[in-house]
Design brief:
This protein has 387 residues and is of the alpha/beta class. It has two domains: 224 residues, Aspartate Aminotransferase, domain 2, CATH 3.40.640.10; 140 residues, Aspartate Aminotransferase, domain 1, CATH 3.90.1150. 42% of the residues lie in helices and 11% in strands. It is built from 14 helices and nine strands. The strands form two sheets. It has a seven-stranded mixed beta sheet, sandwiched between helices. The protein has a two-stranded antiparallel sheet with strand order 8-9. Helix 2 packs parallel to helix 9, helix 3 packs parallel to helix 4 and helix 11 crosses helix 14. The longest helix is centred in the C-terminal third of the chain and has 28 residues. The protein is globular, with a radius of gyration of 22 Å. It binds pyridoxal-5'-phosphate. The site of pyridoxal-5'-phosphate has 14 residues, from helix 3 and helix 4.
């Protein structure tokens, strides 16, 4: 089966894991620190904080930025549920914003502007599919309204602009992301004090960690803030360091496949809409090309296409069921309507995209898709004739 996403793991990771086991220290220590510095360096920052997940990263960012009860936070609905959940964690209210259009499925500035109130404190931008577009415009949008700008950069590891234009950014190293540590996340922040606070909050708010106490003469600690256990460990950091060494080459390979998809789709499936097509070939690293979303023609039965592709050994997924339509959110925010997001989510299909693919896989996916769409068109035509 050709999967939508697949991690690249091999001998280097095995060797790195063995070295950690042999070292006798498996919880947070020197390797986590080394990973933090290298992750920051690759994103044009001086430091980062490694965590157990991107969800933990988003939670701590909102806490550290002082967002809480009574505050509103603008979020897209076309995202993974964690983006909105973290707003609920801190007792604030997520306010859902529509996407710009089917071909630019990122948060719409005009819709965001209409949803600002005097309670709006921050906005969370999601770099959907890995694209970091309109950075200056968002910076201006936030600063002119006095809002904090948080980047959910879960899709954008390795995109050089990701994580450095917001006040803080959260990255994910979950198994299906561009680089993985199995579970894992990291934070970049503009303000060193915010980063320091997040570093302390990840370890129960303790003033010194176990590793520091072991390797220095400090044998006690104090707790000066409410913290959590959101740490990364040495095993994950060791895998992460290996993965970081390949990230830019992997993202380059993703870009190659995205461009190939675009060309093949244009000739074999002209009715399929390919979002971000103006940005597919951006060469300045402005996308990590995390996923390959397409929008099926109006009226096509998506499940039929999904089934046909699965019969040909091709997995597809949907990014995403809109958050405002999930039961938890629909019950709390029943009146939210986001026309573009809802239409996009109805017609979207995510095609396989990962560095272990070969060109031939792209050809296979696009011809299987063309077949499925051809059949779907003739099924519909037959249905119309019968009516
Ligand atoms: C994967 C993902 C997350 C959550 O990441 P975890 O590391 O699994 O917590 C959050 N936001 C987006 C957009 C994601 O894709």
């Amino acid at each position: 089966m050709l999967m939508v996403a697949e991690p690249v793991l091999g001998e280097e990771e095995k060797a790195a894991l063995s070295r950690v086991l042999e070292s006798g220290w498996i919880t947070m220590g020197d390797r986590v620190r080394e990973f933090e510095l290298e992750f920051a360096r690759q994103h044009g920052a001086t430091d980062s904080v490694a965590l157990g997940s991107c969800t933990a990263a988003l939670h701590l960012i909102l806490e550290a930025l002082g967002i809480g009860p009574g505050d509103e936070v603008l979020v897209p609905s076309l995202t993974f549920v964690a983006t909105a959940n973290c707003v609920l964690y801190v007792g604030a209210k997520p306010v859902f914003v529509d996407i710009e259009s089917l071909s630019l499925p990122l948060m719409s500035r005009s819709d965001a502007a209409t949803k600002c109130t005097d309670r709006t404190k921050a906005l969370i931008l999601v770099h959907y599919a890995g694209y970091t577009i309109d950075r200056e415009a968002w910076r201006h949008f936030a600063s002119s309204r006095g809002l904090l700008l948080v980047e959910d950069a879960a899709h954008a590891a390795g995109a050089s602009q990701a994580g450095t234009f917001g006040d803080a950014a959260a990255f994910s190293f979950y198994g299906n992301k561009n680089m993985t540590t199995a579970e894992g996340g990291a934070v970049l922040a503009k303000d060193a004090d915010v980063l320091a606070k997040i570093r302390q909050m990840r370890g129960h708010g303790l003033t010194t960690g176990t590793f520091q106490r072991r390797s220095s003469r400090i044998s006690t600690y104090d707790v000066t803030m409410l913290g959590y256990n959101y740490r990364m460990d040495e095993l994950r950091a060791a895998i992460g360091l290996v993965q970081l060494g390949h990230l830019s080459a992997w993202n380059e390979r993703r870009r190659h496949f995205v461009q190939l998809y675009a060309r093949r789709l244009k000739s074999l499936c002209p009715a399929v809409l390919s979002p971000f097509s103006d940005w597919h070939s951006v060469s300045n690293n402005a996308s990590a090309h995390h996923i390959m979303p397409i929008v099926l023609p109006e009226g096509v039965e998506r499940q039929h296409v999904v089934d046909k592709l699965r019969d040909s050994g091709i997995q597809t997924t949907i990014h995403y069921p809109p958050v405002h339509l999930l039961s938890l959110y629909r019950e709390q925010f029943p009146s939210v309507r986001l026309a573009h997001t809802e239409e996009f989510a109805r017609r979207e299909l995510t095609l396989p995209l990962h560095p272990r693919m070969e060109d031939i896989h792209v050809e296979q996916v696009v011809s299987a898709l063309a077949d499925a769409l051809g059949q779907s068109a003739s099924v519909e035509a037959a249905a119309c004739e019968r009516v």
